[in-house]
Amino acid sequence: MTDTSDTTDTPPGRVRWIPTGRSIIACKPIEPDANTVVFSTRNPATGTVLPSRFQAATRVQVSDAANEAWRAFDSARAIPTSDRAELLRAIAQGLADAEDDLIQICAQETGLTEDRLSSELGRTTSTLRLFADVIEDGSWQRPAIDTPDPSRKPSPRPGLRRMLLPLGPVAVFGASNFPLAYSTMGTDAASALAAGCPVIVKGHPLHPGTGEIAAQVVAEAVRASPFPNGWFSFLHAGGDRERDIGSELLEHPCVRAAGFTGSLGGGTALAEIARTRPDPIPFFAEMGSINPAFVLPGGLSKEPVGIAQHLARAIGQYAGQQCTCPGLVFVVKGSHAASFIERLALELRGMPPTPMLAARIRKNYLSRLESLLALPGVRTEVGDPKEIRGASARLSDDKPTHEKPVLLRTNADTFLSHDTLHEEVFGPASIVVECENPAELARCAGLIQGSLAASVFLASQDLSIAEELVAILSLRAGRIVFNGVTTGVEVGHATVHGGPFPACNRSDTTAVGPMALERWCRPVAFQNAPGNLLPPDLRDENPGGCLRLIDGEPTRDRVAASKGGHPDS
Amino acid sequence: MTDTSDTTDTPPGRVRWIPTGRSIIACKPIEPDANTVVFSTRNPATGTVLPSRFQAATRVQVSDAANEAWRAFDSARAIPTSDRAELLRAIAQGLADAEDDLIQICAQETGLTEDRLSSELGRTTSTLRLFADVIEDGSWQRPAIDTPDPSRKPSPRPGLRRMLLPLGPVAVFGASNFPLAYSTMGTDAASALAAGCPVIVKGHPLHPGTGEIAAQVVAEAVRASPFPNGWFSFLHAGGDRERDIGSELLEHPCVRAAGFTGSLGGGTALAEIARTRPDPIPFFAEMGSINPAFVLPGGLSKEPVGIAQHLARAIGQYAGQQCTCPGLVFVVKGSHAASFIERLALELRGMPPTPMLAARIRKNYLSRLESLLALPGVRTEVGDPKEIRGASARLSDDKPTHEKPVLLRTNADTFLSHDTLHEEVFGPASIVVECENPAELARCAGLIQGSLAASVFLASQDLSIAEELVAILSLRAGRIVFNGVTTGVEVGHATVHGGPFPACNRSDTTAVGPMALERWCRPVAFQNAPGNLLPPDLRDENPGGCLRLIDGEPTRDRVAASKGGHPDS
Q1: pTM to 2 decimals?
Q2: Mean pLDDT value of segment B231-235
Q3: DSSP string over B439-458
Q4: Which of A138, A242, B483, B512 could cysteine-pair with A546, CB 3.0–4.6 Å?
């Protein structure tokens, strides 16, 4: 809902976006419903309840959104890709125009800084624009044509044309820690729209106002586009209704795929619903990731201070609430390692307390820390064990959620013998693991859980151990960063943001970058199809000039007569 | 094991392959083990037990095969792709050279004709050769390079290089109905080897001799190659051990992915094991498929006899035991439909009884038929209901398994109201569904279960209903065939052999064609990697000249300096 009346706060001519507390179904705010669960949220930096009240979507509203999405999908087949690209760009522009309002409310709801949110919004809009560029060239759909050979013996070779086709309505479960880049119009929603699928967003209860404003912007862009209104819905989800809204979406026959970013427990439970429905649907979950850093001896001796500074920032900034936060730092014992750990500790001690996203998240974080501290052989290098012990039990919802970074320290033996040290700690903490030698470090690498990313800090003399590490990490991480930290995901064509379980439930995909579009599609082959029944990008004429595999050769040409002629039967 | 001594049966100079009954682990036949379960199999065409005795792999042997595969994978990283391609070609040649022995034993074990098996072997070897060609060009790994931009503000753009990398050892569960194209060195095993993964085959108990001979050929080719012997193992699986061997393989930590072709029940049970192990692994199952044919009014009036003949052959040949057998035929009522059904019935009645693969499969087939016949509104058009009722209970293992084709007939109302009519009947049977009008036919299409393939027989006047049908089938089938039958899978670059559940558990993949290789891989991104730590196909030099996406543009060039220079850090 837009409001241009409030001229005191708003410069003339600027639209002001404010949340209404109502879900948006088929691009329209729903009428208030007296029987709905109402919820609110807190400013984690102060502990105070924010003024807005949000109405959780009812079961009927969930079903309406899904039915409308299906009808929209069914009726929008003829809308050309160029309109889809324009819609993505209009959404990007709308979000950029709404930046001030979005960031203001988002900072209140999440405790994240305006700088961080501004850069996150930049990533969100540039992702939308990148996807618009990508789909304008149909090549991403992987079109392939095998031309027929009627004279082949013993049987003629049929003409086969294959392409990725969209699955249908996609449900998106937003993340608490990236309220813009992973929520209403984050990478899951953007990639689904780009792939040609309608989107239903389940709003996140920790930033409902942010989610709704972004949804208002998207709805406005969809209404101004050739797409039916059912193309987009946003459902407020909170209070007692939160979980049920998720299940209802995943069980609805019109929902054909879903994306999730969140905890291992949440992702696993939702995956089970998607898997056990009568017609199982693809479900893509990004969950917990440990993102180890391996600081090799050469790298350490070359630039100990710089590495310590980079790692400290990656561990502590945004209270460590990033899916790529480095949770383990491996070093080989020695004088360089000792001074590196000292410097890392110094940097972390110098960082200010930062609010966590919610008391609940802070509580989980402190419990995890406490259980790690109880292990023999684990000690705190930064942080006071006395403050950590029992802290989670003392928390109350109405207090600020600030935490200072914590650094734990252990040795390889302890790491190798306690599985709990291999699991994510979601918060501003990391564990330094000292290894006796490079072989022991490689042995530790072999026990790393599936991760989104891993770092290797090295110099030229580390080549041999680096080769071994890269071989190991290639089986355990989606991205291997050299002489840099894992935080700060670059959105490009080559991006991989995924990894083996438990980082993701589908290690063959990425949540970020253009390959993410393929998650919402399925390859379909057309055999001896009349030209007028083929999708445009598979027709002889190749109107979009997209790169197609013709008899195994990539080419942007139309199908030449010499290739076997027209496949019409 | 080869035998050149038997000069009576074997032309001079020709190697003769005979099964020994022993599993092959790391390319070597294992020593006999007195404590092993021994099993045999029957010739289904006669019901007699075949003379060979096979020793089911023990738990230790399963583990040995998996461990050897892992060690082989770990040690074979430096072997160039050209050697991988050569291995595939050597296997293809070896199988072609062993054709006489393979087909002789296979015909005895399966009751399939020599002609059919010869064509199946041709498909098997041409698949191996196609995959060899595909991997010689590294483009299939989808390499992508985003060049760095150190001058970008506010932060430099890192260099990102992405490629698909192999997962590790793959377990292959062969199919009863395609003893060559889907078993020891069928499409799953061939694609895994092509992708750079070692293979462990669980032999199928209905054709153990065929499986073992094929495995002997593969082992000989691997031994003559630069690959370690652990690259390939074949485990005899039968008797009480059959299921356990499957679970043990899927639970083994060294097995990193698996492929299965078989029943819905079997696939679902195995998928559960792969999913619930501590580190879940990808599991690709091809299961049951109904493969509907839609004969539209125009198509029907144009060529009723030809369509009836093609469909009859697709339904009845090889006792209907093909995953692409058309299980449903939809027509719109009218005089053309009546004479078409008559002709289809005539053709089916004229087909000879054909042996099914095993008494167990025949029993399931007859039970399914009986349950369908019990539905009100379903009647037999071809086949005697009295013979079908109770037949499954009267079967005994020592009798020939021959069955004649059966055609059931019903109307759209009955089809729409009975889910069991939407499910596969594995055997030489199909159901004709008469619809009142094209709209009703489209409504039926909307209830089709996920299928590998669907057929549409049409003429130009059917365009409008065909468009609607194609839209529906694009969501329900992996391949849509126009004016042709679904049987006879063409193996080309554009092949899709997959489909939504229950046809497959992963509708985004294909079991046949080069895209099948991607199932055994995962994308990995390297950020700011030194050139010498990158896989060759991602290095600046692009030694294989493969097509890479450089900053979004496909090119076969090396990375030019103008693109941002060398990414070494």
Answers
A1: 0.96
A2: 98
A3: HHHHHHHTTPPPEEEEEEE-
A4: A138
